[in-house]
Structure formats: structure tokens, C-alpha cells
From TrEMBL:
<feature type="transmembrane region" description="Helical">
    <location>
        <begin position="303"/>
        <end position="332"/>
    </location>
</feature>
<keyword id="KW-0762">Sugar transport</keyword>
<keyword id="KW-0813">Transport</keyword>
<dbReference type="InterPro" id="IPR035906">
    <property type="entry name" value="MetI-like_sf"/>
</dbReference>
<feature type="transmembrane region" description="Helical">
    <location>
        <begin position="212"/>
        <end position="236"/>
    </location>
</feature>
<dbReference type="Pfam" id="PF00528">
    <property type="entry name" value="BPD_transp_1"/>
</dbReference>
<dbReference type="InterPro" id="IPR000515">
    <property type="entry name" value="MetI-like"/>
</dbReference>
<feature type="domain" description="ABC transmembrane type-1">
    <location>
        <begin position="213"/>
        <end position="438"/>
    </location>
</feature>
<keyword id="KW-0812">Transmembrane</keyword>
<keyword id="KW-0472">Membrane</keyword>
<feature type="transmembrane region" description="Helical">
    <location>
        <begin position="419"/>
        <end position="439"/>
    </location>
</feature>
<keyword id="KW-1003">Cell membrane</keyword>
<feature type="transmembrane region" description="Helical">
    <location>
        <begin position="148"/>
        <end position="174"/>
    </location>
</feature>
<feature type="transmembrane region" description="Helical">
    <location>
        <begin position="248"/>
        <end position="268"/>
    </location>
</feature>
<comment type="similarity">
    <text>Belongs to the binding-protein-dependent transport system permease family. MalFG subfamily.</text>
</comment>
<feature type="transmembrane region" description="Helical">
    <location>
        <begin position="91"/>
        <end position="115"/>
    </location>
</feature>
<comment type="function">
    <text>Part of the ABC transporter complex MalEFGK involved in maltose/maltodextrin import. Probably responsible for the translocation of the substrate across the membrane.</text>
</comment>
Length: 448
């Protein structure tokens, strides 16, 4: 028989090509997998009576799962005297459908492997007459595919633990799932790209998105730059030979990093409280301001709250870079500075042309990661300002809201799961694109 016929046999009946090649162990294993899928479909469905057959009423795990993923249900539940009637729950159907697709994907991958294995084995028999015993095949597979065999259980687990929620979150962006359309009393429908057009359009949603996006990018850039600059300055000063008790100073500067960021943000929120905060009261008592300053809640001056957020983030973030840069400074050979001093370079010139380039090269990936972290820095913004002050031109967003805090409000405060899902996709695209672009341009991963 030709190799392709045995491959076709394995595609039509699991394990048949292996049986024809007299590989009984592999054939039996593949047959059990295929039979298990068929049995699971039959046991979970209603195939004893096929009169009036529909995928909804008769389908099993796979058929009903695929039907539910395509339709998201056809009969909503209604409230009756006896309680909720039997109906469809769109979200449950979507999740079951995703699981069915993932399982079918694994079976398809197994089938592809079985087809290639049957054809390859038959080709070897024709050309060389060599037939591997079960033990020989196991030893050969262990040598050639050992990493894949070890990683396979973990990859399968990650497929359902990680891929399932990600796919579910992406699919929600193409539905009308919101607080006004919640199952099981209402069915969720597919709406295509309508949510993307709404969020990226010229209306109020588009104005809010691009306004929040602009501030988010500016916030991430300023938060990363300021913390890095102050951390670099502190690391250089503390590492100077003129500074006494450097360990004591490092310990003091590490304190803001040691305190949980949420606690620090709440403390600063109380300090900058416009009505009762001590800072506003001190300014009035000293005659600096005629009245209390609404640091975080003045809708006419959102930049005041933004500057406070940047200062608080600077306080919380510079110890991280100070610690990293201090470690990088220890790897710079003292001979470099000795040569620079012999050439007449001043201390400032040594820092600018010697220390800074070396440190930047070593910490470039960490700067990118810090930018990504600040892009999604939920804690500082939310616990300090809760996104305020209010902005009447925005939809469910305030003057200091970044994309991640706006996403939180859309989901938990307003139940707009469809728009929030679109937001999560856009955040992933923006952050992922920037990370790939910046890391590829960085010299940190190139050969010296």
C-alpha cells in the first residue's frame, strides 16, 4: 500500500494506519482517543430518539458546544410561577464552546501526527524494510522528542488555564454583553466590529478613548523617566566615595519601596485631601493660598491632580531603579574612571559620557518593563485619585484615569463588558507593539 493511503486511513479512522503498519500499541492508543471522543458525545447527548433533531436539544458535548458558540443560544429564560424556565445562558454556551474547540484542536493535532506517522512508517518499510518494535520506538521518541513529551502536560494545562480566559475575553469584544443585556434573562448576540467602531469613532466614546490614551502614554513616559532619573541620581551619589555611611542612606531610600504602594497612596490621598488634608491647611495658615487647594478633585484643573500622581509615583518608584542601578555601578571597572580622570574629564563628564551609557545599556530592558508597568499602573492612580477629578466630556472616565482604571470602571462599576473587552485588546496591542519595537531597537540583547 502507498504511504498516502495509510495516512488517509489514519485520518478517517483513528489508529487504522498504524494497525495496517502492524504497530498495535500506537494504533490502540489512537483508537482509544478517537473512541473516547465519540463515546463522550453520545453519553452527553440525546441520540436515542432523533425525532425532531436539533443541535440544541439532542447534541452532546461537541455538537452542542459548537452550536452554542455560533448562536450563543436561541431561547432566553423567562420568569414563571415555578421560577426561571429552561433556556439558554449565552456566556455558559460560549465557554463550553471554547472548551469544545480546544479539545477538538488537540484531537486535530493528534490526527495530523497520526497521519504523518503512518505515512512515514510505511515509507520506511518500503525503502529499507525496517520495522521498529514498541521498545525501540519508545527509546527513539525519548531521544528525539523528550522536551516535547515533558512539556506536553504543562502546555495542555496552560491551554485551558491561560488560553481559555484569553479567548473568552477576546470574543466578548464582538458581542453586546453588558449590564443592559445580561443572561439568562436576555441572550447575548454577536455584533461583529460594532464595539470597535463605537470606541474608535468620532463620538463621545472615541473622544474619551483617545483622550485617556494620550494621558496614559504621557503618564507612562513621565513616570518611567522621572523615577529612572531620580534613581540614577541617588545611586550615583550614594556610591560616591565622599559619602559616609552609604549603607544607611541606601536603607533610608529603600523605605518607600518597602511600604506597600496601596498604603502609601492612601496616605498621600489623605494628605492632599482638599477639605481636611494637612497640606492644604498649612498653605492657608502660612498665607500662601487664600483658600484650600482641591488637589485631587478640582475639575477645572485636572493637571494639578496629575502632577500629584506623578510626584507620588516618583516617591514610590525611584528606590526600584536606585537598587538596580547601584548593582550596575558595581560592575563598572574603576580603571575606566581612572583613564577618564587622566584625560581631564570632570565628575559631571564622567557621569554623562561614561556612567550613563553603560548603565543605560545594562538596564534598557528594565526601562521598557517599567514603562509597561506604568502604562498599567492601576494602584497609584486608583487608590490616589480614583481617576478623578470628574470630566463631563468623558464617558465613565475622569481627568487622571488611564486605560486600565477606565477599564476597571467600565467592567465593575458600569457592567460594560463588551466595551471593556475591546479596551483590553487595544491595551494588549499597544503595549505588546511598543515592547517588541523597543526591545528590538535596544542594544541590551545584541552581542557585544
Amino acid at each position: 500500500m502507498a504511504p498516502w493511503t495509510l495516512g488517509l486511513a489514519s485520518a478517517l479512522v483513528p489508529g487504522l494506519g498504524q494497525f495496517l503498519n502492524r504497530e498495535w500499541g500506537k494504533g490502540l492508543a489512537l483508537a482509544v482517543v478517537g473512541a473516547g471522543a465519540v463515546i463522550a458525545e453520545l453519553l452527553t447527548g440525546h441520540y436515542a430518539d432523533l425525532s425532531g433533531y436539533t443541535p440544541r436539544t439532542h447534541g452532546g458535548f461537541f455538537v452542542r458546544g459548537l452550536w452554542g458558540l455560533v448562536t450563543l443560544g436561541t431561547q432566553p429564560r423567562t420568569m414563571t410561577v415555578a421560577g426561571l424556565s429552561s433556556g439558554d445562558h449565552s456566556i455558559v454556551l460560549m465557554i463550553n464552546g471554547i472548551i469544545a474547540v480546544l479539545v477538538l484542536g488537540l484531537m486535530a493535532a493528534t490526527t495530523v501526527w497520526a497521519v504523518r506517522d503512518a505515512a512515514r512508517t510505511r515509507r520506511r518499510l518500503i525503502t529499507s524494510g525496517e520495522r521498529l518494535t514498541a521498545g525501540e520506538w519508545v527509546r527513539a521518541a525519548r531521544q528525539t522528542a523528550f522536551p516535547y513529551l515533558v512539556l506536553a502536560p504543562t502546555l495542555i494545562l496552560l491551554l485551558f488555564v491561560t488560553a481559555l480566559p484569553v479567548v473568552f475575553g477576546i470574543l466578548i469584544a464582538f458581542t453586546d454583553y453588558s449590564s443592559d443585556n445580561l443572561p439568562p434573562m436576555h441572550l447575548v448576540d454577536w455584533v461583529g466590529l460594532a464595539n470597535f467602531r463605537q470606541l474608535l469613532g468620532a463620538g463621545a466614546w472615541g473622544a474619551t478613548f483617545f483622550g485617556v490614551l494620550g494621558w496614559t502614554v504621557l503618564w507612562a513616559a513621565l513616570a518611567t523617566t522621572t523615577t529612572y532619573a531620580l534613581g540614577f541620581l541617588q545611586a550615583v551619589l550614594v556610591s560616591s566615595r565622599r559619602v559616609r555611611l552609604p549603607r544607611l542612606w541606601r536603607s533610608i531610600f529603600f523605605l518607600p519601596w518597602a511600604v506597600p504602594a496601596m498604603i502609601s497612596a492612601l496616605v498621600f490621598r489623605s494628605m492632599f485631601n482638599g477639605q481636611f488634608g494637612p497640606i492644604s491647611q498649612a498653605l492657608v495658615d502660612l498665607g500662601i493660598t487664600p483658600e484650600r487647594v482641591m488637589w485631587l478633585t478640582d475639575p477645572a484643573n485636572p493637571w494639578l491632580a496629575r502632577l500629584i500622581a506623578l510626584l507620588v509615583n516618583l516617591w514610590l518608584g525611584f528606590p526600584y531603579f536606585m537598587a538596580l542601578i547601584s548593582g550596575a555601578l558595581t560592575n563598572i571597572s574603576p580603571s575606566y574612571y581612572e583613564a577618564a580622570r587622566i584625560d581631564g574629564a570632570s565628575a559631571v563628564q564622567q557621569v554623562r559620557y561614561l556612567t550613563l551609557p553603560i548603565v543605560l545599556r545594562a538596564t534598557a530592558p528594565l526601562i521598557v518593563l517599567s514603562f509597561v508597568a506604568n502604562f498599567n499602573n492601576f494602584g497609584v492612580i486608583y487608590f490616589l485619585t480614583q481617576g478623578g477629578p470628574a470630566n463631563p466630556d468623558y464617558r465613565y472616565a475622569g481627568g487622571t484615569d488611564i486605560l486600565i482604571t477606565w477599564l476597571y470602571k467600565l467592567t465593575l462599576d458600569n457592567g460594560l463588558h463588551d466595551i471593556a473587552s475591546v479596551m483590553s485588546i487595544l491595551i494588549f496591542v499597544i503595549v505588546g507593539s511598543f515592547s517588541i519595537w523597543s526591545l528590538r531597537r535596544s542594544k541590551a540583547f545584541t552581542d557585544a
